Amino acid sequence: MFKYEDNSYDIMAQLKNESLFMIGNGYIGVRGAFEEGYPSGDSVRGSYINGLYDRLDMVHAEKAVGFPTKYDKQPKVADTQTCLVFLDGEPAQLINTKYQNYRRYIDYEKGETVREYEFVTRNNKIAYLKFRRLASFVNLNVVSYSIEVKYDGEIVLLSILDGDVKPYSDPNDPRISNESKDLMEITDIGEKDDTSYLLLNTKNTSILQATLVKHLILTENDYSMDHIVKDERVETRITGSDNLILNKICVFTDGIRYSDPLKSAWEILGHLAYENYQTLLEIQKNYLDKFWDIAGIKIYGNENDQNHIRFMQYQLLQNVGIDPFSNVSAKGLSGEGYEGHFFWDTEIYIFPVLVANQPQHAKNLLEYRYNILERAKERAVELGHKKGAAYPWRTISGIECSGYFPASTAQYHINADIAYAFYVYYEFTKDLDFMVEKGLEVIFETARIWIQIGNFFQDKFHIHEVTGPDEYTALVSDNYYTNMMAKFNLNKAYELYKYFSQIEEPTIYEKFKLLIEKINLDEEEINIMKRAADNMVLLEDEELGIYAQDSTFLKKPLWDLDIDKRPLLLYYHPLTIYRYQILKQADVVLAHLLLEEYADYEKMKNSYEYYEKITTHDSSLSYCIYGIMANRFNMVDKAYEYFNQSVLLDLHDTHRNTKDGLHLANIGGTVLSVIQGFAGLRLNGGNLYFRPSVPSQWEGYSFKISFRNCLVEIDVRREILIKLLEGDYLNLFIYDKGYKLKKGEELRVAIMEVNKDD
Amino acid sequence: MFKYEDNSYDIMAQLKNESLFMIGNGYIGVRGAFEEGYPSGDSVRGSYINGLYDRLDMVHAEKAVGFPTKYDKQPKVADTQTCLVFLDGEPAQLINTKYQNYRRYIDYEKGETVREYEFVTRNNKIAYLKFRRLASFVNLNVVSYSIEVKYDGEIVLLSILDGDVKPYSDPNDPRISNESKDLMEITDIGEKDDTSYLLLNTKNTSILQATLVKHLILTENDYSMDHIVKDERVETRITGSDNLILNKICVFTDGIRYSDPLKSAWEILGHLAYENYQTLLEIQKNYLDKFWDIAGIKIYGNENDQNHIRFMQYQLLQNVGIDPFSNVSAKGLSGEGYEGHFFWDTEIYIFPVLVANQPQHAKNLLEYRYNILERAKERAVELGHKKGAAYPWRTISGIECSGYFPASTAQYHINADIAYAFYVYYEFTKDLDFMVEKGLEVIFETARIWIQIGNFFQDKFHIHEVTGPDEYTALVSDNYYTNMMAKFNLNKAYELYKYFSQIEEPTIYEKFKLLIEKINLDEEEINIMKRAADNMVLLEDEELGIYAQDSTFLKKPLWDLDIDKRPLLLYYHPLTIYRYQILKQADVVLAHLLLEEYADYEKMKNSYEYYEKITTHDSSLSYCIYGIMANRFNMVDKAYEYFNQSVLLDLHDTHRNTKDGLHLANIGGTVLSVIQGFAGLRLNGGNLYFRPSVPSQWEGYSFKISFRNCLVEIDVRREILIKLLEGDYLNLFIYDKGYKLKKGEELRVAIMEVNKDD
Q: What torsion do the CA atoms of B347, B52, B275, B194 make, to the nearest 10 degrees?
C-alpha cells in the first residue's frame, strides 16, 4: 500500500502536519486539523477554495505610479472539520498519558487520510476512535468525514459548521500576510433535514460561498441528534453509545462558478442522496486506479523513495486547480503562505508534470492565464507600455498583488514563462484550435513587452531593470534567464506567426487572420521581434568560461557574511544581499534546464559548478533545479542528494515553514527530478529527448508520457526499455541518438555508465 | 529699499504666498496666512519649530529587514496668526469688490512682512488695515504681530491662540505625507494677565511645546479686552474704535531645548516686559544691518535680480536652524512638504553659503550631524555593517525615515556629502579643536562604510547597489557621483589621520589618540581606505569622451516617451523611468562642481553637454548646479538662464508645489550661483579660486567671504577688485593664477572675456 504515515503525535508539529495531511481535489482544500480538537498548541483551521478571493487595500510607505493599490487575498471558507467527542462527558483529546496506538496516514491508493487511536478515560476505560476524511476527485464540491467511536458508555459527538474564519497572519515574515482582518461575513446560516448550511460572503468582492454539512449516522444502536443554530455556527449534537459512526457529507460552492451557490449546493447534495463515506471512497478508489495507472511513477528497489514520489504526485493531484477559474497557489490549498497567490511556479514547476500525463489539466492552467489576459493588458498600460500584456507576478483574480516591485513587477520573466508553457503545450499536443483561439494571443502579447523594455545597443539587444528568478539580485541589466526566455518568447512569436500565416486549414487560418487584426499585429512588428531575438545578448565571462547572471554580477564580491543566518532575507537588508554574488535560487542554471538549445554544453557545465557554490537555496524552488541539472552533467550522486533535499523539504520541514502550507513548486520539481532529472526528458526543437541514468540508491524506475497522440512508457534499469502503448509512431532521441518507434514496438538501449562522483 | 512685493490678492495663490511670505528665524517659522482669514480657498495655517518631531508607524506593503518601522514627522505647533477684524460687526475679509490699495511685501532691511489695504464696508465706509509680523533674529523664541485698524466706528479684534493643529496631507503625492493624524494633544490651556497660553504635547514622542501670546493695545481711545478659554483655543476680544493697534508678543518654546517649556516661556516673556512690536522691529533692524553688511550680495545694474538674490539670502536666514538641535528641512520652516525632514540638501546646497560668511551657523549644522552620529552608527548595524556610520537619507531626530530604499537608503552618498561639509568647514576655518572633538569622528566613521560596501575587482575599487543624486536611476554599480565623493571621503580620512598623528599641539594630539582608541581605528584600516581611494573606479566612455554615470547608464535607450508629463515621477512607474537615460537632476555634473580636482577639464565639459540634454530638472536641486557649471565652461548666457530658472522656481512657482513650502536647496543654490557660479569660487587643494564672469544682464556684483582669519571682499565689474578687509594675508587664485594679498591691499585684475554663447 502506498501511503505516508506519521504515527506519533507531537504538539509542536501540529501546524506542519495540518499542511502535510491536508485533503484536497484542486477545488477545495482542507488542512488536517483534528476533528476533536487539540489539547493545546497552534492550529490554522483552514479550508480554501481555489480562485476565491477578497480584495484589500495595499498601503505603501511611499507610493509611486503603478504601485498596486489593492491586492487579492484568499479567504478561509467555512470550517467543517470540527467534531468534538465526549465519552461519558469526558472530552477525548490527545493529552499525553491518555491515548495509545496512535496512527495517522494518507492512503494514496484509496484517496483518504485516516487517523485512529485508543483513548483512555479518567476511569481507565478504553475507547477506539477513528477519523477518516476525503475530498472527492470525482465530485469536486464534496468533502466527506467519517468519525467512528467504539466505547462502552455514552458517546456524544458535537459536529460544528463554523463561519468564524479569520486569516492567519504574521507581521514579521514577508512571506505571510500581516493582515488579520476578517474577510468573510455571514449572509445566511441554518439547519434543515440534519444538514447545516452556511452562506458566507467575501467582504469587499462580494463573492458568495455556500457550505452544507449533511449528518448521517451509521449505527445499530439508539441515538439522538439535535441542532442549534448560533450567530456564527451550527452545532449538531449526536448522542449514542457503544459503536457510533458519523458520516458528514459536505458540499462547497462559490459565486465565481455558480450564480446561486447555496441553491446549487443543495442540488449537488441532492444528487448525493444515497452516498455515504464508504461509497464516496469507492468512487475515489476507482478514480485513483486510473490516475496511478497513467501518471504513477514507479521506483524500483527503494520503497521509501517510491512512497515519497507518490506523496508528491498525490499532493499535486490534491492542490492543482483543474478548472479555468483556478490555478495553483504557492501553497496550493494547504495553507495561507503567500496569501493564496499564483506565481510563475505554475508554469515552470508544475505545468511540465501535467503536460506529460494529464494534458487536459495542463490546458486548464493555460485557460486561466488566457482568462486574465485582459487584466495583463491593462497592467501593461499601467506600467507605461503602449501595447502588450504584462502578467502580474502574483495574483488570484488577475491584478498585480505585489507590494515590493524589485522582486515582483521587475520579474518580467513571468511573461516568457507563461509563453513558454503555452509553447510546450503546443509541442506536446499540436492543439491548433487552442493555439489559434488562445495560445497565440498570449505568446504575441507577452512578446510585445520585450521589444518595449529592451533596446538595441551596439547591435545587441539588451534588457535593463529586470529581476531574474534569483531574488537575491534585483533590478539588473541583461539578466541571463530573462534574456534567454525573452529570446525564446520572441522567437516563438515569430515562428508561430509565420507558421499560421501559411497554414493550410482554412478555419484555423481565418481565426488567425481575425486574431492579428484584433490585436493589430503586423509583419513589421514581428520582424522587430525576430531581430531582437537574433541579437539578444547572453552574457558570458570568458575567463571563467561561464554565462554571466547579469552585467554586473560577476564583479561583485563573494559573500563573506554569516551564512548561517538563513534564509538571508530574514536577516539582511536587501541592499546588503544585492551587493554580493549570492543566489537565493537557480537562475542561469534554470535557463539551461528550459533552453539548453540556446547554450554551449561546456559553458553550461562550468556555469553550474560556479553558481552552485554560491547558491543558498533559500528559495524552495532551487534544489530540484540543481538536482535535475546535476543529471545533465552526469553527476548522479549529486542529483540524488538534491532529490533527497527536495523530498525532505516539506516532509522534514527543512525550511521551517511547512506550517504555512506545502511548497507546491518544490513538489512539482520533485516529480520533475525523476522525469527531467534522472530520465533526462527534454523537448529540443520539438523532439523528445531522454538521457536516462539511475542513482545507486535505486534499481530503476518507470513512468508513462503522453506526447501528441502517443502514450509511451519508459522503464529504466540496467537497460532502458521503451514501449509505445498508444499512437502510430514516435520519434525520439536517447543519449542524442534518434529512434523511430512504431505502435506496439519496444526499444531497448543499454544504460550509459556515468561518472557518479564528478 | 530691498523688498519682495506682491500687490494683488489672488485666491488661487493663497497657498503659494503663505510659503513665500512666511516669517522665521531658524527656530520658529510661521506661514503667511492672513490674520483676518480668507473669504475662501485653501490654506495651510502652519507654524513649525525646527527639530521638533512626533513619531509614527511606517507601514510597508511588503516589509524586509532594515526597513524603518517608525518615522519622524514635524508637527504644526500652536497657531498664533489669527486676528479676525469686525467693523461695526462686519467681518473684514478680501472679498473682491470690497477692498482697494492692497499692498504686501517682505522688507529685508527691517525684517518684517507687511500687508495693508483699505476695506470698504457695506455702508461704503472705508477702513484702513495694516498687518505686520516678524520673527525675531535676536530672540529666537519670539514672534510678534502688529494689527492696526483705522475706522470711524466700532472695531472688534478677535485674536485666537489655536491648539487644533492637524498636518497637511495628500495621499497621491509621494513628496507629501499621506498621514493626516493629529500629532499634538493639548496639555494645558488658559489665560493670565492678557496673555493666552497653550501647552501642547507630541502624541507619541511626548515632547512639550509651549506658546504664549501677550496682547498689548496701543490706542488713545477707550477699549475693552476680554478672554474666553475654550477646549482647544483661547479667544481674546478687543473692542475699540477709530484707531486701534494690537501688538501680539508671542513666545514659543519646546521640550527639546527646555526642561519646563511653559515655565521658560513665561520667563522669556518676562524679559520682554517693555517690548512692543516697534521696539522689537528696531532690534531686528540692527541685526539685519550687520547681517547684510557681512553677507549681503550686491548686484549692480539689475534691481530685479538684486532684490531676488536678497530674497534668497533672507529666506536662508529665516529657515536655517542655528542651534545644534536643528537643521534645514527640505522646505525649511515654510511648509509641510517632505514632512520637515532634513536631507543632504543641507550639506551640498546650503552649508557652502554659510561657511563663506556665517561660519558659526555652518558649524551648528555640523554639530547637528555630530549629535546624530550615534544613531547613524546604530543604523549601520541595522544595515548589516560591522562598523561605521550610515547617515539616514531623511530624518529629524536621527533615525532613517525613508519609506522607499532605492531612492533613499541606497543613496549612501549622503555619508560622503556630510564628510565633505566637515572637510570644507575645516579648510575654511582650520578649527582644529572642532575637528579633533567632532569632525574627525564623522569623517572616519562615514569613510568606514565605503570599504565595507565596495570591493576590489581586477585591481579597481567598485561600489555596487547604490543610488546617486539622480533618482531617476537607482541601485546601480559605480555611480560616478558616489564613487567620486567616496574617494574624497576616504582620501580625507587618510590624510587627516596622518596629519593628526603627527600634529605638534599636544592637547590636540592627546584628543586624537583618545578618539582613534575609542573608535578602534588603526593604520591598517586607514591604509585600506587609502588603497580604495587610490583605486576607486570613475567610469568613462571613450567614444563619447565623457564620464559615465554608472556601469550601465550609457547602454540604456534615450527617453522616447512623452516628456511633457512632468515631473515624470508623477506619471511613470519607477521601472520605466529607471530603464532610460533620463535624469531627474545633476549627478556627474554635480560631482564636477564639488571635486573638479579629480577630473579632466575636457571630459567634464563633454559630460556637461551630454547630461544636460537628458536632464529633466524634475528635482528642484538641478537648475542651480547646471547654472554654476555653465560658468565653469564659460557659457555665461546659459548660466544666467539657469540662474533665472532657480530664481523663479518659488517666486513663479514653476514646480507647482511652492504651496508645500519653499525649496530651500534651490534657494541656497541660487546664492551659490553668484558665489560659485559667476564668481567661480572653488576650494582646490585648500586654496581659494575665483574665475569671475559677469552676465550681460548685470554691470557687476560684489560680496564678502570669510576664509580662515580673513575677510575678503570681491567686487566684479569690468575689473575685478579684491580687498582684504581683515586678516594679515591671503593666498588666492584668479583664473588659476596665484596672488598673495596683504592686509589693506587691493588687487585689481581685468575681467576675462568669455564666449557668452557657447
A: 160
Residue ranges making up the domain that contains B210: 3-262
**Does residue A137 belong to any structural domain of this protein?**
yes
Q: What is the pLDDT of residue B542?
A: 96
Among A615, A644, A663, the domain-final residue is A615
Give the ipTM.
Answer: 0.93
pLDDT at A705 over 70: yes
Of A615, A631, A665, the position where a domain reaches its end is A615
Q: Which residues contact A318 (CB under 8 A, 6 or more apart)?
A: A22, A23, A24, A25, A26, A29, A135, A332, A333, A334
- Please classify residue B172 by burial: count the beta carbons closer than 10 Å to its beta carbon, then call 0-12 exposed, 13-18 middle and 19+ buried: exposed
CB atoms within 10 A of CB A381: 14
Q: In terms of domains, do A247 and A368 share one?
A: no
Single-letter residue type at A102: Y
pLDDT digits (tens, 9 = 90+) for A672-690: 999 999 999 999 888 899 9
Using an 8 Å Cβ cutoff, are A422 and A439 in contact? yes
Nearest chain B residue (CA) to A406: B575
Chain A residues in contact with B404 by the CB 8 A cut-off are 61-62, 64
**E-state strands within A526-612:** 540-541, 546-547
CA A461, CA A473: separation in Å to the nearest integer? 21
DSSP state of A558: B
As a dihedral over the C-alpha atoms of residue B547, residue B549, residue B553, residue B558, rounded to 10 degrees, the angle is -80
- Kindly state the cell numbers that stand for B520: 578602534
B73: left (phi over 0), alpha (psi -120 to 50) or beta: beta
B38 phi, psi to nearest 5 deg = -105, 155
Which cell numbers hold the place of B544? 563619447
Residue B334 domain flag: no
Contact A473, A550 (CB under 8 A): yes
Phi, psi of A420 (to 5 degrees): -60, -45
In a domain, A273, yes or no: no
CA-nearest of A680, A679, A685, A688 to A706 is A688
Which residues is A130 bridged to in the sheet? A116, A148
Question: Which residues face B227 on adjacent strands?
Answer: B236
Tell which of B56, B552, B562, B565 to mutate to test the A interface (max A CBs under 10 Å).
B552
Chain B residues whose beta carbon lies within 8 Å of the beta carbon of residue A555: 457, 462, 464, 477
Closest by Cα among A632, A742, A647, A741 to A698: A647
Inspect the interface and report whether the beta carbons of A66 and B571 lie closer than 8 Å.
Answer: no
Q: How far apart are CA A344 and CA A392, in angstroms?
A: 9
Q: Do A573 and B405 touch (CB under 8 A)?
A: yes
Number of domains in chain B: 1
A505 in catalytic set: no
Going through B255-329 in order, the beta strands assigned E by DSSP cover: 298-300
Q: Which residues of A118-152 are buried (b: 16+ CB within 10 A; e: fewer)?
A: ebbbeeeeebebebbbbbbbebbbbbbbbbbbebe
Q: What is the Cα–Cα distance from B524 to B509, expressed in whole angstroms?
A: 20
Could you tell me the pTM of the whole model? Answer: 0.95
pLDDT in tens, B599-658: 999 999 999 999 999 999 999 999 999 999 999 999 999 999 999 999 999 999 999 999
Closest alpha carbon within chain B to A411: B575
Write down the catalytic residue from A471, A517, A525, A745.
A471
Residue B533 lies in a domain: no
State mean pLDDT over B547-553: 98
Q: Which of B56, B58, B63, B65 to mutate to test the interface with A (most CBs of A within 10 A)?
A: B65
Return the CATH number at A454. 1.50.10.10
Judging contacts by C-beta atoms under 8 Å, the chain A residues touching residue B405 are 573-575
